[in-house]
Amino acid sequence: MPSSHFSLVVKKKQNEAFVVLTSVVLLIGCAVGVKDRFDNYKVYTVNVDNEAQLKVLFDLEKVAFSSYDFWKRPTKVGLPVDIMVPPHKASEFDEIMRSLSFTSTLKIPDVQVLIDNEQPKNPRDGFNWERYWTMDEINEWLDQIVAEHSDVLTPISYGYSYELEEIKGVLLSYQSGNPAIFIESHIHAREWIAGATATWLINEFLTSTDPEVRRIAESYDWYIFPVTNPDGYRYSHDVNRMWRKTRSRHDLYCLGADPNRNFGHMWQAALEPVLIPALRSSLVLLPSLNWRPDNLANFVLQRTDHIKVYLSFHSFTQLLLYPFSFTPNPSPIADDLQRIGEAAAYRLRQPFGTEYRVFNGHSLYIATGTSVDWSYGGAGIDLSFIYEFRDLGTYGFLLPADQIIPNSIEVLQSLIGLLDESENLGYLP
Ligand code: 0X9
Ligand code: ZN
């Protein structure tokens, strides 16, 4: 055996032993309630300059338990990816980068440092938007706010999560006859800024004295579900900060489903590049966010006379996306959605200069079973948008809590722009 081959084999065995050991440590950790740590996990921005490089990245994404985590997925030549590399993969990653002459830059040198700095060091007591709340705190706040504003707020729920947690929201309504906006927020567990922004909006609609805010608060009804993936959100607090999916069990290789791949419009009509269940997790049998029968889709379908706008809150990359994601064919109203999106992005830019890009989902990457493809194509709600909040990747999913309020302020401005332009174009009264 040539010595280089021999050393590769030895290295492979060492790696395998390391993986087994890490898994055992992780399992014990889970059992005793220890949080996963991300010391020396690094995030690189990797440029994709040719098809060969793109293929390698797709292959890497396909490997089950490869432990690379794509914060920004490979899509097409010319669009860089963000990839989190664990320390035990550092040399393999270097080798891959070198072998195909990738160019990359180190974006986050130590993910654990960002996790440690995400929340303020000395948080003030009580409910405020200076820190990220836990799932229990959000539920408690919702109960409290509903009790305090029972003239305007009605508690709502569309059922239970896989782990049997009631999914709570509010309907905010100042007068009868209003058209409604539905906000589905925080469907991806690690995108904490989504839920925080949704709760801030509820509070602002109740308390703001700004005339433009009062107008949209009072002349529209708002269905707001701040956290639509409570199991995943809990898990991202208690165990693994980087968890994305639900906590539903499917088979040995498939823990958790991606809820934003399981809505029932043209579900799996196109194949995404990643085909294995552990990563794609679309192999749940019933589409439409189905972990319980009384689900989000049914809730919306029963109210399509009322709901005229469907918004899905995510992070990150500062984007406003409209249907479709499953096909490159533009929706018949794509030009209007682009215009409305640009009006929203224009308003969003005003307070702090934050730039959002606006386009259809497919231009970002192909995805089937997304909620807004379904709300547009399945439920017939023309004004369907995904927000990808701050930032552009400096912190990524680990946006420091001191950006909750600025993010929320600019998103609220964008809602004014979005609704104004929709009215101008005749989509809303
Ligand atoms: O992949 C998703 O579900 C969304 N991005 S995220 O990073 N928050 O997970 C975006 C879905 C929008 N559609 C397409 N990108 N095609
Ligand atoms: Zn997301």
How would you summarize the topology of this molecule?
Elements: H1 3-31, E1 42-46, H2 51-62, E2 69-72, E3 81-85, H3 90-99, E4 104-108, H4 111-118, H5 135-148, E5 153-160, E6 166-172, E7 180-185, H6 192-207, H7 211-219, E8 221-225, H8 230-238, E9 249-251, E10 254-255, H9 277-280, H10 296-301, E11 307-315, E12 319-322, H11 334-352, E13 357-360, H12 361-364, H13 371-377, E14 383-389, H14 404-424
Parallel strand pairs: 7-8, 7-11, 11-14, 12-13
Antiparallel strand pairs: 1-3, 1-4, 2-3, 5-6, 6-8, 9-10, 12-14
Helix pairs in contact: 6-14, 11-14
Bound molecules: N~2~-sulfamoyl-L-arginine and zinc ion.
Pfam family, one: Propep_M14
Protein name: Zinc carboxypeptidase A 1
GO cellular component, one term: extracellular space
